[in-house]
Design goal:
3 helices; 0% strand
């Protein structure tokens, strides 16, 4: 039965069309895969850049919020001083 199908001209044309359709589908899927991979690479690059920026911001935040720096700025800019030990009162509930 299969030998009869491939020996007829209609069977050969159908087989040829199926091969062409299959080849076009493979090319289309390969193209789509490459496009998605390129998009993935772009997004991973952006993620690394954002991660680096976040790390820099965390470091900057920890540097700017260091207790000795805050104390120095409060003393110089705001002229704040620590209270004398005799004026400190502890409130208990």
């Amino acid at each position: 039965m299969i030998r009869l199908f491939f020996s007829s001209p209609l069977g050969l044309v159908a087989c040829f069309l199926l091969v062409v359709v299959s080849a076009v589908a493979v090319v289309s899927e390969t193209h789509q895969t490459r496009m998605l991979f390129a998009m993935l690479q772009t997004q991973e690059s952006e993620r690394w850049q954002l991660q680096e920026e976040y790390s820099r911001l965390v470091l900057e935040y920890s540097t700017l919020s260091a207790p000795h720096r805050v104390s120095a700025i409060s003393r110089s800019s705001l002229t704040m001083t620590s209270p004398d030990t005799g004026t400190i009162r502890v409130v208990t509930e």
